[in-house]
Please model this.
Amino acid sequence: MTRDLALAIPPALVDRLRSARSVAALTGAGVSAESGVPTFRDAQTGLWAKFDPTELATPSAFARNPKFVWDWYAWRRELLAGARPNAGHLALAALERRVARFHLITQNVDGLHQAAGSSDVIELHGSIGRIRCSRGCGTVARWAVAQGDLPPRCAGCGAFLRPDVVWFEEMLPPDALAAAEDAARHCDVLLVIGTAAEVYPAAALPRSARACGATVVEINPQPTALSDAVDHVLRGPSGVVLPALVAAAWPATSLS
Ligand code: OAD
Model:
């Protein structure tokens, strides 16, 4: 399988990647699918096929029923407890060691890029590993197993603590968004991996990169809203395609 894909990788893309001074990657839920983490929009298996996001991932849902929302994120944390980085995460960490400048922009909250060894990950949608004050008093903490009534209360102001993730109707963290936009505008190659490219502003980054001259590559087993607006499409799971791509550009690379 890897061998076939390596043959299918366009030589022009291999050359461009190898000579790139700056590479960026934008990842979505699909990059973690082979680690057993469910995506959002895949039919039947995606979280939004089973759960209503307006009841679980909005500030008004949390205001209406904080325990319900807290418990759902606690359940997602349990799902993640056994998840390990897959070959796609490891290939991105190996790629970072090969290029002069590398920026990893993720919409994922699962921490698997960091677990694979990627550094300076730009988390556009926050992290399920942290909690913060729902009133915005500035309290941020690691999510530990809480005792007593849930959600726990902020020690600073007494409001409920909430997952430190971005919900629908909320702004992205300004520093993360600015860093992602800067990386997209200044890279030579942008890899867009495992995202349906339907949620903005993240979905705008590939077009912004291309408008600034980057070669944009989609890695996804399925067509997306972005597929017609990229330079190369590599159809396949990222756990197979990414190691093949890195091996094609740097044949001696170890992914471990
Ligand atoms: P989606 O669930 O919308 O899209 C996942 C993409 O991954 C789809 O295009 C799949 O075809 C692809 N995919 C599935 N398996 C794959 C594999 N093995 N390798 C590569 N790709 C694979 O997830 P996102 O685009 O990440 O936001 O969703 C964006 C945001 O919407 C999420 O961050 C989340 C969600 O609502 C919030 O919660 C704020």
Notes: The mean pLDDT is 94. Residues 185 and 212 are 6 Å apart (CA to CA). Residues 28-31, 33-34, 39-42, 46, 57, 107, 125, 166, 194-196, 198-199, 220-222, 224, 237-239 surround 2'-O-acetyl adenosine-5-diphosphoribose (CB under 6 Å).
